[in-house]
Amino acid sequence: MLMRTDPFRELDRFAQQMLGAAPHGTWSKPAAMPMDAYRAGDEFVVCFDLPGVMPEAIELDIERDVLTVKAERRPSPGGDDVQMQVAERPLGVFSRQLFLGDTLDTEHIAARYEAGVLTLRIPIAEKAKPRRIEITGTPPDRKEIKA
């Protein structure tokens, strides 16, 4: 109903674990952001982990049925006297695209950012909701069978 997967994501994750991450702030491609997605009643909910990202550094765009989430984690402000000792948190641009099916109402997406988690709530389209179909017609004539 929702997502495209990146076949190289697991390979990238494995390479980063084995070889170490790229130097601080030098990502060669947008990094994936962890995500959960689930249906809750009449809406689809998607949550992205974006710790340390300022709300104004998050962009949400939708074109046709493709939702793009883009965020940038910038370096912490520091003066000339700051000497980095450990730099493990990735900086740079994070991006994710979701392909939304026509069963979702993309005109009414709600977005909320709280405690480093971006939550999108996408209503299920009326045409995709279960509905009962009324059967019309006349009952067949019943003839009694005499034994």
Automatic annotation (TrEMBL):
Domain SHSP span(s) in chain numbering: 26-138
UniProt superkingdom: Bacteria
PROSITE patterns xref list: SHSP (PS01031)
A Pfam match: HSP20
PANTHER family (alphabetical): HEAT-SHOCK PROTEIN 20 FAMILY MEMBER (PTHR11527)
Protein family: Belongs to the small heat shock protein (HSP20) family.
Name this protein carries in UniProt: Hsp20/alpha crystallin family protein
Source taxonomy: Bacteria, Bacillati, Actinomycetota, Actinomycetes, Pseudonocardiales
